[in-house]
Design goal:
Blueprint lengths: L7 E5 L4 H12 L3 E6 L14 E4 L4 H10 L4 E5 L7 H4 L3 H10 L7 H12 L4 E2 L2 H4 L8 E2 L7 H19 L5 E5 L2 E5 L5 H9 L9 E4 L13 E2 L1 H9 L4 E5 L4 E2 L2 H10 L3 E5 L7
Parallel strand pairs: 1-2, 1-4, 2-3, 4-5, 9-11, 10-12, 11-13
Antiparallel strand pairs: 6-13, 7-8, 7-9
Helix pairs in contact: 8-9
Length: 280
């Protein structure tokens, strides 16, 4: 006898991943409800036939209440969240108590997300990663494209891993761009797309740079996994870069067939890497 899937609560930020998850729930017949984060989630997704409620980041208490009313048992947090403004953070009473416990200095880093998971699970709802619902989104190990990294690109990847792991350990960012052994830039608050744009202006002549994107060593797999999609490929091509190395089994690739097709069109490589096995 087939076991009925638990109702899924989706906390949705920006990007296409919330739409992909909603589509999956519909196709599999899984019941769901979405809390859409104002100023982040795409309004076009939330038509009348999508069960949802809009909330500010500061309305976590309101969100908990709504998820209980909807009988959500498992929760996924997915999509990009921009650094909140002061008005976004004006808290309801429950959220104010939460901020008081963890300290406002935690806002914006992995610490607040881990604390939020504990808070959600204290409400008898289980937080799951999108990879537990849609495992096919995880990047596979090995080269995914026709083009493959050459000796220089492999050296750049090794250098990027060295820097990226340290960057992640300090909870700064997930991405590094290296060209011909030189670190052109590391990801800060601006995100990967802006990093690519910025580093495009720093490149030297010759072989273009390589984007290395890794999960932070201490990062919970249920939140904010590194993600690439067609926009990543377009931005790298525009900037004159040659490829991507992304953390295999620890990062997401959105619409993999289209991403690979586009990379092949631009003669760009995408390779899934295990950072502990890449030789320096």
């Amino acid at each position: 006898m087939e076991t009925k899937q638990k109702k899924l609560g989706i906390i949705a930020g920006g990007g296409i991943l919330p739409q992909i998850l909603i589509n999956h729930c519909r196709q599999s017949g899984r019941d769901f409800f979405v809390l859409a984060i104002e100023g982040n989630a795409d309004k076009a997704i939330f038509t009348e036939d999508v069960p949802h409620k809009w909330i500010r980041i500061g309305q976590a208490g309101t969100g908990f209440k709504k998820m209980h009313e909807q009988n959500a048992e498992e929760i996924v947090m997915i999509g990009t969240i921009h650094r909140p403004t002061f008005s976004d953070l004006v808290p309801d009473l429950r959220t104010a108590a939460f901020f008081a416990r963890i300290g406002l200095k935690s806002i914006g880093d992995d610490g607040i997300l881990r604390a939020l998971i504990k808070e959600i699970e204290s409400e008898n709802m289980r937080v799951v990663g999108i990879h537990e619902v849609l495992p096919d989104l995880l990047v596979k190990e090995g080269c995914l494209t026709k083009s493959k990294p050459d000796k220089q690109a492999l050296a750049d990847i090794a250098r990027g891993i060295e820097v990226g792991l340290e960057l992640g350990r300090l909870d700064v960012g997930q991405s590094v761009i290296v060209q011909q052994g030189l670190v052109l830039g590391v990801e800060g608050i601006e995100g990967t797309d802006k990093l690519i744009e910025r580093c495009g202006t720093y490149q030297r002549k010759g072989d273009g740079g390589v984007l290395i994107k890794l999960r932070k060593p201490q990062q919970d797999m249920r939140i904010d996994l590194p993600t690439i999609g067609t926009a990543t490929i377009e931005n790298l091509h525009k900037a004159g870069m040659r490829g991507i190395a992304v953390h295999a089994g620890n990062a997401l690739i959105v619409n993999e067939p289209e991403v690979i097709k586009l990379a092949d069109k631009y003669k760009m490589f995408i390779t899934g890497i295990n950072p502990t096995e890449v030789k320096k």
